[in-house]
Each structure stands twice: as structure tokens, then as C-alpha cells.
Design goal:
mainly alpha; 2 strands; N-acylsphingosine amidohydrolase activity
């Protein structure tokens, strides 16, 4: 079921960045790409688990840590999910006629700020 949910969200997002808000392609495709990179690393870890364990025993600890692809799965899918939530919030606030803006905390962490329309 989770896979079906992700597939549906991907199709919906592609539709939105293709037909509704094409200027959001960067955010939409970045969230998708990061999520898929985590998924790819997780599958590599599942398929080559024994080989990776043997490899980690032979290399310095810092390399062993960097090859913990299951951990990278959690980090990258979490980041990809966060960016997709930002994408969804941005599209929803646009639909509601607000003026969303993406700002970066400390120059690196994206957040959405928006101002409601003024009522006259």
C-alpha cells in the first residue's frame, strides 16, 4: 500500500509541475530525485547486504559508516519527503490565493512563508 501511495503522489506531482505550476519543477523533481536515491541505496543494501558487511570489515570505519545504505535510505527519504511536503504546501497555498515564498534558514534549510491576501 505504501508503494501505491508513493506512486500516486509521484503521478500527481508530475501532473502539477507539467500542467498547473510548471515553475515548481525544480522543487518537485528535487524531492522526487532525493527520495528515489534513498530508495535505490536501500535496495542496493538489501541485495548486497552480505558483500557490504564483508567490505565494511576490511575498510577504515569512516568508509564503513558511509556505506551504511540503510541509514542513507532513512536520511534521503526523510529529506525527499520533507521537500515534497513543502511542494504540497506551496501548491496548496497558491491554490488558496496566498503568496508563498521559499526562504532558507541558515542559507540551507528550505521553509515556506506566506502572507494571506488582504481583505478590503
Amino acid at each position: 500500500m505504501y508503494g501505491m501511495l508513493v506512486f500516486t503522489l509521484v503521478l500527481r506531482s508530475i501532473y502539477i509541475v507539467t500542467w498547473v505550476y510548471p515553475w515548481l519543477r525544480g522543487l518537485g523533481y528535487t524531492s522526487l530525485g532525493i527520495f528515489l536515491m534513498g530508495f535505490l541505496l536501500w535496495n542496493i543494501d538489501n541485495i548486497f547486504c552480505d558483500s557490504l558487511r564483508n567490505f565494511r570489515k576490511k575498510v577504515p570505519p569512516i568508509i564503513g559508516v558511509a556505506t551504511q545504505f540503510h541509514a542513507w535510505w532513512h536520511i534521503l527519504t526523510g529529506l525527499g519527503s520533507y521537500l515534497h511536503i513543502l511542494f504540497s504546501l506551496y501548491t496548496r497555498t497558491l491554490y488558496l490565493k496566498y503568496r508563498p515564498k521559499v526562504k532558507f534558514l541558515f542559507g540551507i534549510w528550505p521553509v515556506i512563508l506566506f502572507e494571506p491576501l488582504r481583505k478590503h
